[in-house]
Fold this protein.
Amino acid sequence: MSILDVKWDPKEKKIARTAFDRAYQREMAEIKAALLDQITKLKDDEKVWSIHNYLSECRAEVDRKYDYRYSQLILVFGRLLKEGYLKEEDIVGLSDDKIKLIKVCHQINKSNIIHVC
Amino acid sequence: MSILDVKWDPKEKKIARTAFDRAYQREMAEIKAALLDQITKLKDDEKVWSIHNYLSECRAEVDRKYDYRYSQLILVFGRLLKEGYLKEEDIVGLSDDKIKLIKVCHQINKSNIIHVC
């Protein structure tokens, strides 16, 4: 089965949306904390642009990562689970097949997943 | 006299460089303090990109403003003096003509200065 063929019923879509938003909130909280840490440790005021560079990278990465298309959601959840922003309890209620795919997918290189899963 | 014709002798160039750097340091310190203030006041973690937007604007503005070409320095110093990043004591040692131009220029719209000064 390809992850592109996965079907999401209305109940699962609701669970997925909540899980997705929670992961996003956790990651944003982490970025904010890292930002605060960087600023308080910044000894040279003139290096404040390093913080801008950091935020630019984070923003690009987050924008790329949080793709809510259903065709991508297994991959996205796999990655978020691996990175710790998604918790297993967040996806309770999804079908066993989807949970299995999510757990497997995060261990596999993205370029292989489409064919393997 | 056009500000484009202003000549800077070696002693004045040294004073100008130091004054320019001091103004830059003051502005960067202010940006850092504002940044810290914004982060500590940020109640919604998901609005952390507003800080990125703020820094992007500051960076573009600072990059535009701090133009060390001698043909622009009177204008730049005029603006920095007006904004408080440059102090009058920073430019002590420049010729009276230059100091007068700097003090006059900050009150005039940039588009008029080239012709008026």
About this structure: Chain A touches chain B through 20 residues (CB under 8 Å). Confidence is low (pLDDT under 50) at residues 113-117 of chain A. The helical segments of chain A are 10-41, 48-65, 73-83, 96-105, 110-116.
